[in-house]
Design a protein that fits this description.
The structure is a single chain. This protein is α/β, with parallel strands linked by helices. It folds into two domains: 201 residues, 3-Layer(aba) Sandwich (Rossmann fold), CATH 3.40.50.720; 158 residues, 2-Layer Sandwich (Dihydrodipicolinate Reductase, domain 2). It has twelve helices and 16 strands. The strands form three sheets. It has an eight-stranded mixed sheet, with helices on both faces. A hairpin with a 2-residue loop joins strand 2 and strand 3. Helix 2 crosses helix 11 and helix 7 packs across helix 12. The radius of gyration is 21 Å and the shape is globular. The protein starts with 6 loop residues before the first helix and ends in a 24-residue tail after the last strand.
Length: 408
């Protein structure tokens, strides 16, 4: 599958499908969907729902080859949709993760979706939502071990609130040799302009401006930053330290040069939602994560709600006078088409058995998120930890969508 579908590519695909219709079709990939909860606008609705319904791409209906055959939900809120969809789309509602994968130590699916976002779960003292992503993942891995075989897994957003548990997940994927992919939809959504720096672009400093405040959306900021910063070298070596600030200390840090005001302005120049006036006056609860990479590069993630309602990036490239910058385009709900970009990359995982981009990126961003939240709880203390020293090879292509985000 192409990482950047266009109308021309779909015309070619249509011709290929006409030829393929002359031969018996292969069996559709069988998918198990493991969710915390499935209701309108939940992540399971947007990801698993696209495997059920299909979705439009470049004016053409795209139906994933994978077919959800069973679904397990950890919770069933009053607005649950899954039980009503089961008879319509012919999938079973499973009582356990094991049952969703085949039952009694059997494995009869070709891929596993784990969408551990949304539902009623407590927060810990650092403001982290205690989603059971690690538990659900290890339940799947237990079936793999009992059955003696494994299949690719996608796990939505960061792997775990605990970096040690996240590392266990990555280690299990290596031990059992299955494709493993995770993360945010922002790295693969459309960019305006279509900025995808080549590997080895000497980006010395980067900044992402996003919105909201707290764990859930700071993760998107970190993923947006990392998908750009990893292009600076053929080998990502990880993060040395992170310092997190909120409130007035964010502006003080900017005044002291601890984050780059010129890169904020460059990022804001791409934001169609940008408010007028000074962000100091507009933002009631600003957040900042200040990131020190092991190789000396620096990164900043700002959450500036009420000044912006989108995510944009700006970076400083050695030897260039002007910064590079782009907007991560996020077509609005209810359709939220950025989930189409993510789903398309998940399809690539299931089709090939290999992740289109490394899970280590999300292992790194999740670790920075955890230690940043610990920094906040400690009053802005600079945090160093070996958990953030994650090394990996960046992909040649990021998998981001190109072209129009509409059906035109």
């Amino acid at each position: 599958m192409s990482p950047s579908p266009s109308r021309r590519e779909f015309m070619k695909t249509g011709a290929a499908l006409a030829v393929a219709a002359l031969v018996p079709p292969l069996r559709a990939k069988r998918i198990a969907s493991i969710n915390t909860a499935y209701y309108l606008r939940s992540h399971a609705y947007h990801i698993a729902g696209r495997f059920l319904e299909g979705y439009p791409m470049a004016g053409v209906h795209h139906q994933p080859e994978g077919k959800i055959v069973r679904m397990y939900n950890d919770q069933y809120p009053p607005n649950d949709l899954s039980r009503g969809l089961a008879p319509k789309f012919g999938f079973e509602i499973a009582k356990t993760v094991e049952e969703a994968l085949g039952g009694s130590g059997r494995l009869d699916v070709d891929g596993v979706l784990i969408v551990g976002e949304h539902g009623q779960y407590p927060n810990n003292e650092f403001g982290q939502k205690l989603y059971p992503r690690h538990r659900l993942f290890m339940d799947v891995v237990d079936v793999f071990k009992k059955s003696g075989k494994s299949v690719p897994i996608f796990s939505d957003k960061h792997l775990s609130y605990d970096t040690r548990l996240a590392k266990e997940m990555v280690a299990a994927s290596r031990e059992l040799h299955f494709g493993f992919m995770a993360g945010s939809s922002l790295p693969v959504t459309w960019r305006r302009p279509e900025l995808e720096p080549s590997i080895g672009t000497p980006i010395t400093e980067g900044l992402v401006c996003g919105y909201s405040s707290g764990e859930a959306y700071m993760f998107h900021c970190l993923e947006s930053l990392q998908v750009m910063m990893e292009r600076r070298s053929a080998q990502e070596t990880g993060v040395q330290a992170v310092t997190a600030l909120k409130g007035e200390s964010v502006w003080k840090a900017g005044d002291e040069g601890l984050w780059p005001k010129d890169l904020l302005e460059a990022a804001l120049s791409r934001s169609p939602s940008r408010n007028y006036g000074d962000p100091r006056d507009n933002c009631p609860d600003p957040w900042a994560f200040l990131i020190e990479y092991k190789d000396g590069a620096r990164g900043t993630c700002l959450q500036l709600s009420e000044h912006v309602a989108d995510f944009s990036f700006a970076g400083r490239v050695k030897g260039q006078a002007e910064p590079i910058s782009t907007l991560f385009e996020l077509p609005a709900p209810p359709g939220a088409r950025y989930f189409s970009a993510l789903t398309y990359n998940i399809e690539k995982l299931f089709a090939t058995g290999k992740a289109p981009y490394p899970v280590e990126r999300t292992l790194l961003t999740g670790a920075v998120l955890e230690y940043g939240l610990r920094s906040l709880a400690a009053g802005g203390k600079r945090m160093e930890d070996a958990g953030m020293e994650v090394a990996y090879v960046p992909p040649a292509e990021t998998g981001c969508f190109k072209g129009s985000s509409s059906d035109r």
